[in-house]
Every structure is written in structure tokens, then in C-alpha cells.
Amino acid sequence: MMQRQIVGNDIKNMRLNARYSQQRIADVIDVTRGTYRNYESDRYGISLSDFIKLAHECDLDLEPVFQQIDTINENVKKLCIQRIKK
Questions:
Q1: Tens-digit pLDDT profile for the chain (86 aa)?
Q2: What is the DSSP string of 7-68?
């Protein structure tokens, strides 16, 4: 499976789709407008916590991602239990 990274253009398009200014998003994620601008231009990578705040503000549903993580955690837990029992 090919890995897909979140890049500056993705972040910018999320903001534009929600019709927000860079300043509004910068305020929401508690960074300067300059820092946020650097995220959009790929000068800096956005942290996971800032991305989650951005996604929430832009009404993106991250629940499917977290559900997949929960499923993975349960699968790993089952594998570990199986190995212990051997």
C-alpha cells in the first residue's frame, strides 16, 4: 500500500474549502500566521495535534481514522495474547 502524507497544499485546500483565512486557522491552532503560512508552503511540517485541530475546525471527520487505529490495536493485542499462550 502506498503511503500518503499530508502536504502543505492539502492543508491549504482544507482551509480554502472551509472558507477561512490563514489568520483564523493560525488562531485556532495557536501559532502565528507566519508559522501557519510555512505549513501551507511545506517549509515546516504540521504537528499531529495541530492537524487534528485544523481538521476539527474545517469539519473533517477523523472518526474513521481513529476507528481503524482502534481495530489495529485490538488485532495487535490479540496477536500478543496468542504469542504468550504458545
A1: 667 788 899 999 999 999 999 999 999 999 999 999 999 999 999 999 999 999 999 999 988 888 888 888 888 988 888 778 76
A2: -HHHHHHHHHHHT--HHHHHHHHT--HHHHHHHHTTSSPPPHHHHHHHHHHTT---HHHHHH
Say if residues 56 and 65 touch (Cβ distance below 8 Å).
Answer: no
Instruction: Go through the chain and tell me how many residues it has.
Output: 86
User: Is 18 in contact with 57 (CB distance < 8 Å)?
Assistant: yes
CA angle in degrees (0–180, nearest 5) for 23-10-6? 110
Domains contained in the chain, CATH given: 8-85 (1.10.260.40)
- The Cα-based distances of 69 to 23, 60, 65, 86 in angstroms read 32, 17, 6, 26
